[in-house]
């Protein structure tokens, strides 16, 4: 029918616009490399902030002792205690407690919030096993994962709150989840050179040579290294395959013009892009019947885990797709033909995101000169990946991995390893407290 062909035209146009042929991905990787240089050259030199993290000592794996970490996410936080056994012994033991933050503290003063956190931490410290207390005069040390960009002096505020209740603990490192993941990965494998988070949002961090950071005017650290928090979600390039749906999503978002890369590849947005394409098909091609299903008009109603479930549907009649459309969007009686279109859209959106993420990783490897195999060199480069999207969206993960291989070519691909870093972020902060200890 005429309407069906209109729907097919919308699908086809979307497919063309969001396509990521290999040449385009190479341009994205080159642009990432260029922007990394620009962001390192000067403050505000690029959409990529390339933040200097002050983490200049990554764990070697030989650290020993008892270290604490505090992982502050959205609505709850975790306190951890990690017992490190030194060379070859690794993590001997770890304990953690999860605490939910009362809602009124999330919107109240930061002093009240930090007082609450400090008292929860003190409670946790009180359960420290006998025989593990620090010797007299020695402070406990803490790594703090704080995954929001902040202007406030969070270390100072936390320290003040701890002092108030007599908790003698030093904040040895303040990092975000990406740097925590990098540290956690490095503790177990010294070939880890970068970390990428693909969860609700996305970010990357990597190890740069301090002398390759023109905007750094401080002393060159003893290690010669400095971890850079790229804030790569804000990367943009004319080579990103933007469609009308991405432009509208951005315009109607809370941060228009910002986080362009993130809006193409992260879990927060993939399902929402799908909703927008389906809405257009409903409006302009009566794809779901004469009326537009009201639920389809609700922003962010289609979540990425639901999209993932539809994308992985292996039932012959695409039952999962049918049920999701019914349960979430209240669209019943979908034909197999329609369900197949939905799966195809999932595939287009996830494939674009995964391939762009792979191109971003290639950009980092290029910046470090690790994108080509060097004759006679056995150098390995490991990238630690974490986040719910990478962990649970199998097709996304597989596409990312195969695209990176495709971009690198067979020989270079053998030198690059993608490793799933399981919950590096919490433990990573404790490991950073160890590698930044004042008693080293
Ligand atoms: P965060 O990024 O919020 O710190 P996570 O790393 O756990 O937390 O990632 C959670 C995100 O991962 C979710 O917002 C969602 O977008 C994505 N996600 C979780 N489960 C799935 C799934 N089964 N399929 C696809 N994406 C998922
Ligand atoms: Mg996270």
From TrEMBL:
Can you quote a single GO CC term? mitochondrion
The Gene Ontology terms for molecular function here are:
ATP binding; D-glucose binding; fructokinase activity; glucokinase activity
Q: Where is the Hexokinase C-terminal domain?
A: 194-434
Give an example GO biological process.
glycolytic process
Gene3D superfamilies reported in the protein's UniProt record: 3.30.420.40, 3.40.367.20
Q: Which parts of the sequence belong to the Hexokinase N-terminal domain?
A: 11-150
Query: EC number(s) in its UniProt entry?
Result: 2.7.1.-
What is the catalytic activity of this protein?
Answer: D-fructose + ATP = D-fructose 6-phosphate + ADP + H(+); a D-hexose + ATP = a D-hexose 6-phosphate + ADP + H(+)
Q: Which CDD domains match?
A: ASKHA_NBD_HK_plant (cd24020)
Domain of life, source organism? Eukaryota
Task: Identify the keywords attached in UniProt to this record, alphabetized.
Answer: ATP-binding, Glycolysis, Kinase, Nucleotide-binding, Transferase
Instruction: Write down what this protein is called.
Output: Phosphotransferase
Specify the taxonomic lineage.
Answer: Eukaryota, Viridiplantae, Streptophyta, Embryophyta, Tracheophyta
């Amino acid at each position: 029918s005429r309407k069906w062909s209109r729907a097919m035209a919308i699908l086809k146009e979307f497919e063309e616009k969001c396509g990521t042929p290999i040449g385009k991905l190479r341009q994205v990787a080159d642009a990432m490399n260029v922007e990394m240089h620009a962001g390192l050259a000067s403050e505000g030199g690029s959409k990529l902030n390339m933040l200097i993290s002050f983490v200049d000592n990554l764990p070697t794996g030989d650290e020993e002792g008892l270290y604490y970490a505090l992982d502050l996410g959205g609505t709850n936080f975790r306190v951890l205690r990690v017992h490190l056994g030194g060379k070859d012994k690794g993590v001997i033991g770890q304990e953690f407690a999860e605490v939910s933050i009362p809602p009124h503290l999330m919107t109240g003063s930061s002093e009240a919030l930090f007082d609450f956190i400090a008292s929860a931490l003190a409670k946790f410290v009180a359960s420290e096993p006998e025989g593990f207390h620090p010797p007299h005069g020695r402070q406990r040390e803490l790594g703090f994962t704080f995954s929001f960009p902040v202007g406030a002096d969070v270390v100072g505020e936390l320290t003040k709150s701890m002092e108030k209740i007599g908790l003698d603990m030093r904040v040895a490192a303040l990092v975000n989840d990406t740097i925590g993941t990098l540290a956690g990965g490095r503790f177990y494998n010294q070939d880890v050179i970068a970390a990428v988070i693909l969860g609700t949002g996305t970010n990357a961090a990597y190890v740069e040579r301090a002398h390759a950071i023109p905007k750094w005017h401080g002393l060159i650290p003893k290690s010669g290294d400095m971890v850079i928090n790229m804030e790569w979600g804000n990367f943009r390039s004319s080579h990103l395959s933007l469609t009308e749906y991405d432009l509208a999503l951005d315009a109607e978002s809370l941060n228009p013009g910002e986080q362009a890369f993130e809006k193409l590849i992260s879990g927060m947005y993939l399902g929402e892009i799908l909703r927008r394409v389906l809405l257009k098909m409903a409006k302009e091609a009566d794809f779901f019947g004469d009326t537009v299903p009201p639920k389809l008009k609700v922003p962010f109603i289609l979540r990425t885990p639901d999209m993932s479930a539809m994308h992985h549907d292996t039932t012959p009649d695409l039952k999962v797709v049918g049920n999701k459309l019914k349960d979430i969007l209240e669209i019943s009686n979908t034909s197999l033909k329609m369900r197949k279109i939905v799966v195809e859209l999932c595939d287009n959106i996830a494939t674009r995101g995964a391939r762009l993420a792979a191109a971003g990783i290639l950009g980092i490897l290029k910046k470090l000169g690790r994108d080509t195999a060097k004759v006679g060199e056995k150098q390995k480069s490991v990238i630690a990946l974490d986040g719910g999207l990478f962990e649970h969206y199998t097709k996304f993960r597989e596409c990312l991995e195969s695209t990176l291989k495709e971009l690198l070519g067979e020989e270079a691909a053998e030198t690059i390893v993608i490793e799933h870093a399981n919950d590096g972020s919490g433990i990573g902060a404790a490991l950073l407290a160890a590698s930044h200890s004042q008693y080293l």
